[in-house]
Amino acid sequence: MNRRPRIVLLVIATVPVLAFSLAVILDRPATRSAAGTSTTGPSAAENARSSSGFDGALLPGGGSASDFTLTNQSGRRVSLDQYRGRVTILTFLSSTCHPTCPLIAQQIRGALDELGGKPIPALIVSADPTADTPAAVRRFLGEAALNGRVQYLTGTPAELGAAWRAYDIVPSQLGDAESPHAASVLLIDRAGQKRDLFQVEQLTPEGLVHDIRKLEGEGR
Fold first, then answer.
1. How distant, in Å, are the alpha carbons of 29, 144, 178, 179 from that of 106?
2. Are 111 and 205 in contact, with CB atoms under 8 Å apart?
């Protein structure tokens, strides 16, 4: 047999193999690429829930939530420890941090609405006491429909500085979503442990409610 017929036979034998391989590749389910681009596989949120059961970032061994005592919008002194035994929402915001802080306030409002009459403590610690005047706080809470539903806390520079340091808050970076110190929402469990963290891009009322109920159900 000369060289040309041998090449023809080899091509004829190879074509079905290539066709079969291509069919197998195309039939595989889509997955998320290494670069994080979206495909038809499970979402990152679904993967997170399937592994931890939480919508937020679970903080196993997150440590005790440091206590503080500050003054709320009505002039009453409020401490974190007084809510021990209850799942508590904690965040650090400013009435001048736009658009991140109003967005977080609205998501918290949505979660409180979904929880209905079940009282869940929600504490907002000021990250800008100079701007957070009584009038500015009233306006901020009114626009988010949170008047009478959350504690907006402020205090002396020493009191606030201690709280910021305890929770690794850098006020000037609250509105910067790329910063590790950007505004976020922390859930503290009934034992006073830091358990669950929502960055602004993953924060939804439904996610907050889901994780609050999960924490409430622990140990019961």
1. 37, 5, 21, 21
2. yes
Query: How, if at all, do strands 69-71 and 77-79 pair?
Result: antiparallel
Q: Where are the domains of the chain?
A: 44-217
Class of domain 44-217: alpha beta
CB neighbours of 145 closer than 8 A, spacing ≥ 6?
A: 109
Sign, CA dihedral 83-53-144-119, equals negative
- Higher per-residue pLDDT: 124 or 53: 124
Burial (CB count <10 Å: 0-12, 13-18, 19+), residue 185: buried
Handedness of CA 38, 42, 46, 51 (dihedral sign): negative
Higher pLDDT, 24 or 198: 198
Judged by phi (left if over 0) then psi (alpha if -120 to 50, else beta), residue 125 lies in beta
Rounded to an integer, what distance in angstroms lies between the CA atom of residue 134 and that of residue 171? 19
DSSP class of residue 154 equals B
Which range among 2-16, 23-37, 49-63 shows the weakest confidence by mean pLDDT? Answer: 23-37
> Measured at the alpha carbon of residue 7, what is the angle toward residues 6 and 13, in degrees to the nearest 5?
90
Higher pLDDT, 25 or 116: 116
CA 104 – CA 198 distance, rounded (Å):
10
The pLDDT-based confidence of 220 (bands split at 50, 70, 90) is low
Give how far Cα 191 sits from Cα of 83, 86, 90, 98, Å: 10, 8, 15, 33
In this predicted structure, what is the pLDDT of residue 112? 96
